């Protein structure tokens, strides 16, 4: 696989997602990081987005609920290099009706090499990084070269 460089801007596009039993935890975390979050473009799935927008008093671009396709909408933006970070407080103790969508979202994040925080500790590490406040480069798959090399 060939790779190319993608420039991540100072003002990042951040997706915020949480399973039902983790929504309050995400809200509490986001309130602690409100000032930092205000410097970026925020995206979220349905209920989580509405809840965060109300509690943070910040604009959030909301998708439909995760089980109805919101996870896939976020995954599509990741694959288009339109999202830079994923903060996804998922519940490891609850079976989700949309587990395949969750797995697909996490897979897409890994394929496109974006940072993923799956709990408060990883989100704290991510947001304490000096990379949050500056532009940087990340390697992403160069599928154009890959597709050109395929003997279809």
Automatic annotation (TrEMBL):
InterPro entries: Methylgl_synth, Methylglyoxal_synth_AS, MGS-like_dom, MGS-like_dom_sf. The gene is mgsA. GO terms for cellular component: cytosol. Its EC number is 4.2.3.3. Keywords: Lyase. Belongs to the methylglyoxal synthase family. The active site is at 71 (proton donor/acceptor). This is Methylglyoxal synthase. It comes from the Bacteria. It catalyses: dihydroxyacetone phosphate = methylglyoxal + phosphate. Substrate binds at residues 19, 23, 45-48, 65-66, 98.
